[in-house]
Specification:
Elements lengths: L4 E2 L2 E4 L5 E4 L2 E2 L6 E6 L2 E7 L8 E4 L5 E4 L10 E5 L2 E4 L1
Antiparallel strand pairs: 1-4, 2-3, 3-5, 5-6, 7-8, 8-9, 9-10
InterPro entries: Gal_Oxidase_central_sf, Kelch-typ_b-propeller
Length: 89
């Protein structure tokens, strides 16, 4: 990972890669996301809002639903991760 973080989510994608989203790094909230594949971390963009203590659920479609958590305004919001992009709803 490019940054140390806690209170993030880790979701296994349909293709076996791992998606790590958000969290609370040592200094600031993170909206960054990274994908883990074969021992390598790759940045995959950022959520529209930084969040931690959120949920990230793999859907049958292969998209990841990211909901809630703590942030300045993340309550009641969700985003969909369509590998490799985010769409806010």
């Amino acid at each position: 990972m490019s940054t140390t973080r806690h209170d993030h989510t880790a979701t296994r994608l349909k293709d076996g890669r791992g998606l790590v989203t958000g969290g609370n790094p040592v200094q600031d909230l993170s909206g960054s996301s990274e994908v883990f594949n074969a021992g390598t971390w790759t940045a995959t963009g950022a959520t529209s809002q930084s969040r931690f203590h959120h949920t990230a659920t793999l859907l049958k479609s292969g998209h990841v639903l990211i909901v809630g958590g703590f942030s300045n305004s993340a309550w009641g919001t969700y985003e969909l991760y369509y590998p490799p992009f985010y769409r806010r709803r």
